[in-house]
Amino acid sequence: MADKITTQWKGNMVFESDNPRWPSILMDASIDFGGTNSGAAPKAMMLSSLAGCSGLDIVSVLNKMKVKLDDFKMEVTGELTDEHPKYYHTVTVDYYFYGVNLPQGKIKKAVDLSIEKYCGVMAMFRKFANIKTEIHYHNK
């Protein structure tokens, strides 16, 4: 199975890219690089993709385990190399879970399954970056 996207230059430093399940997203360079900040930063979108992929896995597994959460968020930090081509050499994923009597063992298992088995974006990142993860539990 192959995914295919089309990315069209819209002028200046703006590009519009479609997605198999979404009409389009705009990407733009920062003002420092001649852009207008009118779209997402392409490298940062990679971090969003990592969080989305892992988050989908975790929610799916926790639903099967019948775990209820009040909230769940991820913060992904990517450290870029100094030299061109700049890429993320280290990526940190912090998972934050909120709820009452959080079942830490089940949550850890769901996170570990995403990290080690299911998340294809995580597997791609491992090809070029050191991945660090941490789980934060916030019981009410």
TrEMBL record:
Which Pfam family would be a valid example here? OsmC
Source taxon at top rank? Bacteria
InterPro entries attached to this UniProt entry: KH_dom-like_a/b, OsmC/Ohr_fam, OsmC/Ohrsf
Q: What is this protein called?
A: OsmC family protein
**Annotated source species:** Gilvirhabdus luticola
Q: What is the lineage of its organism?
A: Bacteria, Pseudomonadati, Bacteroidota, Flavobacteriia, Flavobacteriales
